[in-house]
From TrEMBL:
Residues 1-11 have a biased composition (Polar residues). PROSITE patterns: SET. Residues 458-590 form the SET domain. GO terms for molecular function: DNA binding. This is SET domain-containing protein. PANTHER family: CORE-BINDING (CB) DOMAIN-CONTAINING PROTEIN, SI:CH211-178J18.4-RELATED. SUPFAM superfamilies: DNA breaking-rejoining enzymes (SSF56349), SET domain (SSF82199). Residues 1-25 are annotated as: Disordered.
Length: 600
């Protein structure tokens, strides 16, 4: 409700009364809006008018809310509390720029170890993935002095649209612009990265972010660059920063405190020109920027970051031990060694005969294991459990034959099996998942149909290329044989398609896909007509895939999907090989091919 009270001052340039009514240019078609306008709810009123007096009585009598007015003393109390907290925080944390970035120095060795492991294509466990995420968040907030809102709201598209900047001394830097943050209505936030830092964020983008995306079913319209282990936008980067400090037993330094400490040092040591670069990089409010700012340029942004680095520099692995389970295993083995005659291989063979490995097999009691395997019972039971776990893992993987499942879907399916012990790990399912050649799976077809109807294909985005124009790039890995997306458009008969083909320019023939259905009848999909009737506000992914006869990495495949008794012909694009992150999707759609009207 846009009702404004008399006690809200109207700071206009004209000397108008507080009850001056600006001209109402807005006209409403909605009945409720019209009724509100007729009742005067879009106008200013004195506090003693009938409308507001009646509303006050309604709040007091009907809802028992006596304190519905905002008192000025409460605002002062809140301000005083905030001031006290800021004072306490400033007095108990580090006082030099170098101490602000101490956690980055302490954690750098661990971080570089994880980076090296990722760049060697080794798989990372979740603690290592979180270490990389927390370090990069801390890097932007403590070294680059960015607000938490910049880290939270930086989008995938803003990362992919970053610009290269070459300094006068030949150094190569990268500049990222972030639109949404605290002072977004006044300033564009910019992040300037040197070559090493750009490589770090790129490693996160290619190796950690895709792993997190597996845990989320939904696809955001404007994907965030930094995401949580659940695959969604991080909730509060400041919380992550606090956890990171706690991990290395250091006092917590917030982004706000770091900015204040660097600002204090800047005022005492920088020239006016350097202060201008510094203020520009920090995206200060207009009130601050009016003292210094000129139009932002990538060069100024990079030079500002070099000054911040100058400020920071100017001021001054656990060994694993065997657990109690392994110790107790050795004790049991020594206790039984004198009474056994079977060797290890014989005991294992007898163990498998006595206790066949099945998907739903229950755990075996220790006394039964000892009776069969004697001193080898631990070895035999470990083998038995590993075999069952692999069998169960393959069973779960078989439930998702065409599209890689999210962690949530895999976990949900595992829980439905009611396995009390020796449960399959979700991360193992995702690690060993490979697409199946079986295309007649009812549950999977249902999931594919949902994606076809929503056109929310995960792991893909449309990019603008100065040479090619638009192209489709990957943001996660696709395994050979996996469904990537569909070729979406208006279904036509073969005759309609050929008539449209005859009237189509040669450079647009690739938007028409000809195929034969299961009965041998020629059909066509028209992706030339934009938008398609079922997605009037969406630029579908499939029609933006470019052509390459030699470098194609996907192929089309006819799939019949059934919904509510109706059968749909869908062309799915299947990965011809393993496709890494940040690779363009390419499809051979030469007009000589049978699927574009040729004889094949």
């Amino acid at each position: 409700m846009q009702m404004q009270m008399l006690n809200q001052t109207n700071n206009t340039e004209d000397d108008q009364s507080a009850l001056y009514q600006p001209p109402m240019n807005q006209s409403w078609d909605n009945k409720l809006r019209k009724a509100m306008q007729m009742s005067g709810l879009y106008q200013k009123h004195p506090l003693d008018c009938d409308l507001l007096a009646g509303f006050a009585k309604y709040l007091r009598d009907d809802h028992n809310i006596p304190n519905f007015k905002q008192e000025k003393s409460m605002s002062k109390q809140v301000s005083q509390e905030i001031t006290r907290k800021r004072y306490t925080q400033m007095m108990t944390v580090a006082k030099t720029p170098k101490e602000c970035v101490a956690v980055l120095e302490v954690a750098k060795k661990d971080f570089l170890g994880v980076i090296g492991k990722a760049m060697s294509e080794e798989s990372l466990d979740e603690p290592e993935q979180l270490l990389m995420l927390y370090y990069l968040e801390s890097l932007l907030m403590l070294k680059h002095l960015q607000r938490a809102g910049v880290v939270k709201n930086m989008t995938l598209n803003e990362w992919l649209s970053r610009k290269e900047c070459i300094l006068p001394n030949g150094e190569k830097w990268t500049v990222i612009g972030v639109k949404q943050h605290k002072t977004a209505t006044q300033q564009l936030a910019t992040v300037s990265l040197d070559e090493e830092e750009d490589a770090w964020l790129d490693t996160y983008y290619r190796h950690v972010r895709p792993a997190f995306l597996k845990n989320c079913d939904d696809v955001e319209e404007d994907e965030r660059f930094f995401i949580s282990t659940a695959g969604r936008a991080i909730y509060n980067p400041s919380n992550d920063l606090q956890r990171f400090h706690a991990k290395y037993k250091l006092p917590n330094i917030t982004s706000q405190v770091a900015r204040h400490i660097f600002e204090t040092h800047t005022k005492a040591n920088f020239t006016d020109a350097e202060k201008a670069l510094y203020a520009d990089y920090l995206a200060h409010t207009t009130a601050t920027s009016d003292r210094h700012y000129r139009m932002k340029t990538p060069l100024n942004v990079c030079m500002g970051m070099k000054l911040i680095s100058k400020v920071a520099m100017s001021s001054e692995s656990d060994n694993e031990t065997a657990g109690p389970s392994s110790a107790s295993t050795r004790c049991r083995t020594r206790a039984l060694s004198s009474s056994q005659t079977l060797d290890e291989a014989q005991a294992l063979n007898l163990f498998y005969q006595s206790f066949p490995v099945t998907i739903d097999g229950q755990s075996i009691k220790k006394k039964d294991r000892l009776l069969i395997a004697g001193r080898h019972e631990r070895h035999c039971y470990d083998k038995w459990r590993n075999q069952q776990e692999k069998m169960r893992r393959d069973y779960v993987i078989a439930h998702f034959p065409r599209r890689e499942p999210t962690a949530r879907k895999a976990e949900k399916y595992i829980k439905r099996q009611n396995w009390e012990k020796n449960k399959v790990k979700v991360e193992d399912v995702l690690r060993y998942w490979q697409p199946s050649t079986n295309i007649d799976t009812k549950n999977e077809n249902k999931a594919i149909m949902k994606l076809v109807k929503s056109q929310k294909w995960k792991g893909l985005y449309i990019s603008n290329d100065p040479v090619k124009g638009r192209k489709v790039m990957t943001t996660r890995k696709f395994a050979e044989g996996e469904v990537v997306c569909d070729y979406h458009g208006l279904p036509l008969s073969g005759k309609q398609g050929k008539e449209l083909l005859a009237a189509t320019d040669e450079d647009e023939m690739g938007y028409l896909y000809f195929y034969k259905d299961v009965s041998g009848k020629t059909c066509c999909i028209d992706a030339k007509t934009v938008p398609c009737p079922c997605h009037p506000e969406k630029d579908t992914i499939g029609r933006r895939i470019n052509h390459s006869r030699k470098r194609s990495n996907i192929k089309g495949q006819l799939q019949q999907l059934e919904e509510d008794g109706k059968v749909w012909n869908v062309i799915l694009f299947i990965a011809q090989r393993d496709i890494p992150v940040q690779e363009e999707l390419l499809f051979d759609y030469g007009v000589s091919r049978k699927y574009f009207g040729g004889e094949g």
